[in-house]
Design goal:
This protein is α+β, with helices and mostly antiparallel strands. It has a domain at 7-128: Gcn5-related N-acetyltransferase (GNAT) (Aminopeptidase, 3-Layer(aba) Sandwich), CATH 3.40.630.30. It has 5 helices and 8 strands; from the N terminus they run ββαααβββαβαββ. It has helices at residues 22-29, 32-37, 47-63, 109-124, 139-147; strands at 7-8, 12-15, 66-73, 78-88, 93-100, 129-135, 151-162, 165-175. An 8-stranded mixed β-sheet has the order 1-2-3-4-5-6-8-7, with helices on both faces. Helix 1 crosses helix 3. The protein is globular, with a radius of gyration of 15 Å.
Length: 177
């Protein structure tokens, strides 16, 4: 796969990240609430971080270890978040990570994108298992996973150090039946 496919859902288009997205990425990812609810987004979030993420997407596709999509509203093609699969080739599985800009929370967008990426992982990549996890203080992300058909597999106690505090990590998974 040399080019990331475009995935269409009812309301969304999942596409490659573009340099034109940098302004929106920085604008949305700079929100401290986004950083507080995710594992890997720094705060403050800079243009340099956005460029790094776009490069990670490009390099990941090339090596087939990361498939990172921009989440866009279909009607406007506007960037509103990101979702990706970090592939562990040895075990034929991947971890899903995602974030949505705050103005779009609570609208089912993350679930819609997550379902599409699950289908992509199983059908296009032939993966056996997909996992995802969330900080225990972000139960809304767990709802996204549940609504996407993922099953809670466990809680890793005090597993993540973020902002000088240890957090529990709740793990979900789904297998290719």
């Amino acid at each position: 796969m040399n080019k990331l496919p475009e995935i269409n859902t009812e309301r969304l288009i999942l596409t490659e990240l573009k340099a034109d997205d940098i302004k929106d990425i920085v604008n949305y990812a700079s929100n401290k609430k986004i950083s507080d609810s995710t594992l890997n987004l720094p705060h403050p979030y800079s243009e340099k971080d956005a460029i790094y993420w776009i490069n990670l997407a490009y390099q990941g596709l090339k090596s087939r270890t990361n498939y990172i999509f921009a989440i866009r509203l279909k009607e406007e093609s506007k960037f509103i978040g990101g979702i990706g699969l970090g592939v562990e080739k040895r075990f034929n599985r991947a971890e899903i990570g995602y974030w949505i800009a705050e103005p779009f929370w609570g609208k089912g967008i993350a679930t819609e994108a997550n379902k599409a990426v699950i289908e992509f992982g199983f059908k296009d990549l032939g993966l056996n298992k997909l996992t995802s996890s969330h900080l225990s203080k972000n139960p809304a992300s767990g709802k996204v996973m549940q609504n996407s058909g993922m099953i809670k597999e466990g809680v890793l106690k005090k597993h993540i150090l973020k902002d000088e505090i240890y957090h529990d990590l709740v793990v979900y998974g789904i297998t290719n039946q």
